[in-house]
What does this fold into?
Amino acid sequence: MADKLKITLVKSPIGRPEKHRKVLKGLGLGKLNRSVVRLNTPEIRGMVDSVSYMVTAEEVTDEA
It folds into this structure.
C-alpha cells in the first residue's frame, strides 16, 4: 500500500449535496484541477470514496 494519495478535484461541487461539499473542504480541495497530497489512511479513503465522482486519486510513494 502506498504512503500517500494525490487527490485532484475534476468536477465542480456546484449543485452537489452539502455533505459532499463539506467532504471536499475537509480534504482541502476548493478549486477545479487543484491537487492535494494526503496520507493514505482509512479515513481519507472513505472521504475520497464518498466524492469519487468528483475527484481522481492516485497513490504516491515517498522517494526520499
